[in-house]
Design a protein that fits this description.
34% of the residues lie in helices and 18% in strands. By secondary structure, it is α/β, with parallel strands linked by helices. It has 2 domains: 2-63, Phospho-2-dehydro-3-deoxyheptonate aldolase, domain 1 (Alpha-Beta Plaits), CATH 3.30.70.1140; 83-332, Alpha-Beta Barrel (TIM Barrel). The chain has an 8-stranded parallel β-barrel with strand order 7-8-9-10-11-12-13-14, surrounded by 7 helices. A 4-stranded antiparallel beta sheet has the order 2-3-1-4. β7 (96-100), α3 and β8 (124-126) form a beta-alpha-beta unit. α3 runs parallel beside α11. It is elongated, with a radius of gyration of 21 Å. The chain binds phosphoenolpyruvate and manganese (II) ion. Phosphoenolpyruvate (PEP) is lined by residues 102, 128, 132, 184-186, 207, 237, 272.
Length: 337
């Protein structure tokens, strides 16, 4: 249920609604919008009637949220969420591009890539220090050393860092290094992990599971938000279908649909979405055209020797070319790169 307060409702009136929600054994999530304060009422509110709040001072309207996801829904918050990341805003008019290798492999690899993607216009550096691999015998990531290399690259270039956290126990350590915590596709429904990142105030890039529906992605965002962390980005990274010529089927339907259903920023990952470097640039353009707020792109100085995802990694010069080509497209769409 959503309680929309009147414009100019007083702090006491808002406080009274919050207190009433708590009395009813439900959880209030106040959302302070530009014009109205909205109080999302979450919990098992099946029998709750709107009249409970309608008669209270300062209350404008009360509506039921039709979706199972509440805090993530457009009904809870009409305007787009913009996540501030000191100096960088995600979800506004300006598109955000995160780029870097799949895995952190070495100091030279990270510094070379960081410089190159920064020059091309990326605002965040990606790179996995902890890698969720299908095989336990495959490279599992550099761990703490990898986090340190990411921090050094940030120090030198000023790029912010996005990197994956795989377990609840690792959240405090990875949070010391990461500006954005990535939840990988394989962990989208790891509820213990979602609760753990939800208890931080670190922005989260939540990747859609390769076998998950759009509804399930939004319910996973709801786990994070219901713990108090509203800084969630939804990431479409391709789903598994019967098509073997691409690694995944990049479900671009999800982008405009997520924008319709939710106020959260949507990031597209054409690297994992296609699995092929030669499809990354065209699908990056398609992502922007259908309304994505940003991109996450794998870039490696020597994809042929990458320890993971070389086949879908762009060389720095191809990445720079893609960025040049995206610029006029973004402008035509009323966005900025
Ligand atoms: C990655 O970003 O390198 C990654 C492992 O992605 P996903 O979780 O989408 O497979
Ligand atoms: Mn990868």
């Amino acid at each position: 249920m959503i309680v929309v307060m009147k414009q100019g409702a007083t702090a006491a009136e808002i406080g009274a609604v919050i207190a009433r929600v708590e009395e009813l054994g439900l959880t209030p999530h106040p959302i302070y919008g530009e014009n109205h304060t909205v109080i999302a009422v979450v919990g098992e509110a099946v029998t709750l009637e709107p009249d409970v709040f309608l008669s209270m001072g300062g209350v404008d309207t009360v509506t039921r949220i039709g979706h199972q996801f509440k805090l993530a829904s457009r009904q809870a918050k009409a305007e787009d969420t913009v996540i501030a990341l000191n100096g960088t805003a995600i979800g506004g008019r300006k598109l955000v591009v995160m780029a870097g290798p799949c895995s952190v492999e070495s100091r030279t690899q990270m510094l070379e890539t960081a410089q190159a993607v920064k020059e091309a216009g990326a605002r965040l550096l990606r790179g996995g220090a902890y890698k969720p691999r299908t095989s336990p015998y495959a490279f599992q990531g550099m761990g703490l050393k990898g986090l340190e290399l990411l921090a050094e690259a940030r120090e030198i270039t000023g790029l912010k860092i996005v990197t994956e956290v795989m377990t609840p126990e690792a959240v405090p350590l990875v949070s010391q290094y990461a500006d954005i915590l990535q939840i990988g596709a394989r962990n989208m429904q790891n509820y213990g992990l979602l609760n753990a990142v939800g208890r931080t105030q670190r922005p989260v890039l939540l990747k859609r599971g390769m076998m998950s529906t759009i509804q399930e992605l939004l319910m996973s965002a709801e786990y994070i938000m219901s713990n108090g962390n509203y800084k969630v980005m939804l990431c479409e990274r391709g789903i598994r279908t019967f098509e073997p010529m691409t690694r995944n089927t990049f479900d671009l339907n999800a982008v405009p649909l997520l924008k319709q259903l939710s106020h959260l920023p949507v990031i597209a990952d054409p690297s994992h979405g296609t699995g092929r470097w030669d499809l990354v640039s065209p699908m990056a353009k398609a992502s922007i055209a259908c309304g994505a707020d940003g991109l996450i792109i794998e870039v490696h100085p020597h994809p042929e020797v990458a320890v993971s995802d070389g086949a879908q990694s762009l060389k720095p010069e191809k990445f720079a070319q893609m960025m040049r080509e995206l610029k006029p497209l973004a402008e035509a769409l009323g966005r900025e790169l």
